[in-house]
Design goal:
With about 290 residues, the chain is an alpha+beta fold. Helix content is about 40%, strand content about 15%.
Length: about 290
């Protein structure tokens, strides 16, 4: 259990970490980071002790759908009712976020960080914001139409390396698996069968020298990520940032800012870490 739940000081650090290290730094250490994944302690299989809680407020979900239809022209009700697969719906929402909000380090702090406040910030500050805010916004849009997902902080081995990355994982009931999607770097990853991979699958592919393909989101074929150098960078970037993970073990809105009367973040009790040797079955539970 100690390796599954980590201290809140680390959680606070992750809230401030940034993505996109220099290309040279990431690529120079590619082989080293692959070896770290291959030689790390294996997970403790079959010790599942935690189940994610579903605490989605349906009234809040309706409010989000109404707000984005009125203020962003995004008809979430129509998307939810369509015949599109869960993955197709997830990609459509990731593209919506990516096309409207570029990657950047935000220019000011927001105490209240949810889909509405982040969208309003993006209209006032068009330069965009970072991966964590991207993932928070996308997570709430997905939850508003019933798609279970989490935003995951992906971290490197080096405790002095503040360059982490935050992405979403979405549950695909049609395939009974998780899939990673990244509106910030406009990408997702597939295996040989072209099925989108989860973060844990990506980690296992690297450990076992199995190639995976980095794909750009539709409409971003001219982005830097789509170039050969960008795709090569992302391979090295993922080798670095799949060493350990953090997420909330709950499906809910407003996870990033709700505070109790003592000033403590309410959702902090749900925040968990997965380190080598920890309980991966619990961490990746549905």
């Amino acid at each position: 259990m100690k390796k599954f739940f980590y201290n809140i000081l680390i959680a606070a650090f992750v809230l401030t970490c940034v993505s996109c290290a220099s290309t040279g730094y990431v690529e120079k250490n590619y082989s080293k980071n692959v070896e770290l994944l291959k030689t790390c302690e294996p997970y403790a299989a079959g010790t599942k002790t935690v189940q994610k809680e579903y605490l989605v407020d349906e009234q809040r979900a309706r409010e989000l759908r109404e707000y984005f239809k009125e203020n962003a022209g995004l008809d979430l009700d129509a998307l939810a009712a369509s015949d599109k697969s869960t993955w197709e719906k997830s990609v459509e929402l990731a593209v919506f976020v990516a096309k409207n909000i570029p990657h950047d380090n935000q220019k000011r702090f927001l105490k209240e960080r949810n889909a509405i406040t982040l969208w309003e910030y993006s209209r006032q500050v068009p330069t965009g914001f970072n991966c964590r805010w991207h993932s928070t916004l996308l997570s709430e849009l997905l939850l508003s139409i019933g798609i279970r997902n989490s935003f995951i902080t992906c971290l490197p081995y080096d405790k002095n390396d503040g360059d982490c990355h935050v992405v979403n994982i979405v549950w695909l009931p049609e395939l009974e698996k998780w899939a990673m999607i990244d509106s910030d770097m406009v990408e997702y990853v597939t295996g040989e069968d072209e099925v989108p991979l989860s973060l844990q699958e990506m980690r296992e592919y690297i450990q076992n020298d199995i190639p995976f393909t980095v794909n750009v989101l539709p409409g971003f074929e001219d982005s830097w990520v789509a170039q050969p150098s960008g795709l090569e960078y992302m391979q090295a970037y993922w080798a670095k940032n799949l060493y350990w993970f953090q997420t909330y073990m709950v499906y809910a809105f407003d996870l990033e800012y709700a505070y109790d009367s003592d000033g403590a973040r309410v959702s902090a009790k749900y925040y968990a870490s997965l380190l080598p040797g920890g309980d991966d079955e619990a961490f990746w539970s549905y």
